[in-house]
Amino acid sequence: MNSALSNDNMKSKIRIASGQGFWGDLLEAPVNQVTKGEIDYLVMDYLAEVTMSILQKQKNRNPNLGYARDLPDLMKRILPICVEKKIKVITNGGGVNPVHCADEILEHAVKLGVEKLMIAVVLGDDIHDRIDELIEAGAELNNMETGESIKSVKHKILSANVYFGAMPIVEALNHEADIVITGRTTDTGLTLAPMIYEFGWDPKDYDLMSAGTVAGHILECGAQSTGGNFLGDWMSIENMAEIGFPIAEAYPNGEFVVTKHDNTGGKVSEETVAEQLLYEIGDPTDYITPDCVADFTSIKLEDLGNNKVKVFNVKGKPDTEFYKVSCSYDDGFSTSGNLTYSWPQALSKAKAADKILRKRLENLNLKFDEIRSEFIGYNATHESLAKKIDEDNINEIVLRVSVRSHDRKAITSFGKEIAPLILTGPPSVTGFAGGRPKPSDVVAYWPALIKKDLVKPQVRILNLS
Predict the structure, then answer these.
(1) Cα–Cα distance between 434 and 262 in angstroms, integer?
(2) What is the CATH number of the domain that holds 414?
(3) Which pLDDT score is estimated for 431?
(4) Are 55 and 66 contacting, i.e. CB atoms less than 8 angstroms apart?
(5) How far, in Å, are 197, 210, 406 from residue 256 at the CA level?
(6) CA 10 to CA 15: how far, in whole Å?
(7) Residue 191, class by beta-carbon neighbours within 10 Å (0-12 exposed, 13-18 middle, 19+ buried)?
(8) Which of 128, 182, 216, 405 is the most exposed place for a label (fewest CB within 10 A)?
(9) What is the DSSP string of 16-44?
């Protein structure tokens, strides 16, 4: 294979471990990954579209914030182990402030007595302050789903981030970074990057790029590929309290084995891996990333037993000329209120209360973009698909009414109409707590595309030596 990259110490196999599937995932998972067995890389995915807007709001209030706050404390716990075992850490937990996140980790390293540490941060994805400049340069940034012009929401944008892929992380690893902290990098890029780096893969070999991308897709949601949230025979999953997170044993030819540490709970099987492969994909023949377009229909799985599943035969196509941009913007206000109605006729009581509330809102001439009523215990999950139920066998129903509006006064007025239902509506009601529900900001999502030549990632090296 002709490689566009080179690594004099090319390995025959590397073990890449997933440590977080989202911001708020099991705090012990990354600790277990570095202590319960041998790994070479720990990759941790913290970001989602809504997370970026939350982090941007935090940074707006305090310029030292804007990253996953658990990350520095976690690194304080595992850094001595990672240094001793030479485990490299790659994470997008830097959010909208990866430099300050790295600075805090370096401060912990000094206090821990770590003598040598190199952290690389990937910058350039945050284009929040460059929107006008980029539009003038030819970036339309129109909504890729509706075609609507970004000008309609430009003044309300909270965050705007480009999805970079694996290559800036590869550059960081080429600088011999021990820890790589990025902003909005694709979830799959966190896993693909060490494969490119260690095996000297050519970025134009799209089958290999796609193989690494598929590995990243399997790891990105943490324990969801080791039995968590499993829709199959979920009752057969053992020791979920100590579930092991997935590990990809990767090889230079693009094949890899999904597994977990032996002394952990959960399960790795063809079914758990296949279910994760189907998670959050559109057209399975065109899984588009900044690095390649992977064909998920080409993937072959072989259950090797003993919590090992081989993944191979992955095919891919060239990457596109675009990056995806994830924007968030203010879109009004919302709030919700709950009341619980007990047996007998719990559902009938809840439905009557909902009807009374809506009539009162109408009489007050309050305007809402949406009013949504859910009857928890009956149809909150399946809505119109919910089966009819026998009220005699229902102990209780929770009525949850949610409203959304660009008029904050309407939302506030709605909050004042929930409590009165206790004494001016159907009987046998409880569950009202916390006072009047308060308005909260609605954050809407704006996906767009931007040509790759308009934005460039930058890698900054921070040293402790």
Answers:
(1) 45
(2) 3.30.70
(3) 79
(4) yes
(5) 16, 12, 50
(6) 14
(7) buried
(8) 128
(9) EEEEESSTTS-TTHHHHHHHSS--SEEEE
Are 358 and 435 members of one domain?
A: yes
Q: In whole angstroms, how far apart are CA 357 and each of 217, 342, 368?
A: 45, 18, 14
Per the structure, the count of domains in the chain is 2
- For residue 122, list its beta bridge partners: 182, 459
User: What's the rounded mean pLDDT across residues 136-158?
Assistant: 94
Q: Are 354 and 333 in contact (CB under 8 A)?
A: no
Q: Which residue has the tokens 């009857």?
A: 375
- Tell me the per-residue pLDDT of 14-54, one tens digit each, with 9 for 90 and over: 999 999 999 999 999 999 999 999 999 999 999 988 888 88
- Identify whether residues 314 and 379 lie together within a single domain: no
- Which one, of 276, 327, 282, 338, lies nearest residue 301 by Cα? 276
Instruction: Please say if the pLDDT value at position 465 is more than 80.
Output: no
Under DSSP, is residue 161 helix (H, G, I), strand (E, B) or coil?
strand
* pLDDT tens digit sequence for 156-188: 999 999 999 999 999 999 999 999 999 999 999
AA letter at 287: Y
- Cα gap 142→134, rounded to integer Å: 12
Which residue carries 């109408």 as its tokens? 362
Mark whether 93 and 121 lie in a shared domain: yes
Q: Residue type for 277, please?
A: L
Classify residue 7: in a domain, yes or no: no
DSSP 429: E
CA dihedral 259, 260, 262, 267 (to 10 degrees): -80
Domain assignment present for residue 43? The answer is yes
Q: Give the model's pLDDT for residue 463.
A: 87
- Please check whether residue 305 lies inside any domain of the structure: yes
284 Ramachandran zone, left/alpha/beta (phi>0; psi -120 to 50): alpha
Q: Which domain holds residue 424?
A: 332-442
DSSP 461: E
CA distances from 4 to 165, 209, 289, 361 (A): 17, 13, 20, 65
Residues 404/25/255/249 CA torsion (nearest 10 deg): 170
